[in-house]
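Apologies for my clumsy wording, but are you able to produce some protein sequence, whichever is easiest, and the tokens describing how it folds?
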Amino acid sequence: MRYLIGIGTYMGLDDSIGLRIAEAIAERGLERGFRAVELQGNLLDLLHYLDPGTDSVLVVDSARMGLAPGEYRFFSPEDVISRKRLDGISTHEGDLLKVLDFAREINVTPPPITLLGIEPAGVVPEMGLSAELEQRFPEYLEAATGFFANAV
């Protein structure tokens, strides 16, 4: 199985982009050889998708990369470091890289994981998307579904 996992929070403006992409793909029937999953809240739930039956995972999320708002990049977890200051693993705060490290600590070998990071224009307590991300939304859908089409 292959998964596209959108992460974030709907109450964070552009932090919801991963969730909105996974939701749109599922609603529009664009899943072709993969399953789209909205994963909000407890990021530790990601561990359920890292079992031996998983071939690959694409995680879609907002990511501050120093790009112009709306720009996006594909990269692997090994290509980046987290700047979040967290005291450990918690169900109340999430850090994808810490969750992947935790998986390895408990002897879970993650499948190949790629991240689709989208530079946010704003991460504030609001619903919706910024104009920059809303305008490019079809492009993100194409990039995400194309990832799996190209990986076949």
Strands lie at 2-8, 35-40, 56-62, 72-75, 113-118. The helical segments are 17-27, 96-105, 131-151. The longest helix spans residues 131-151.
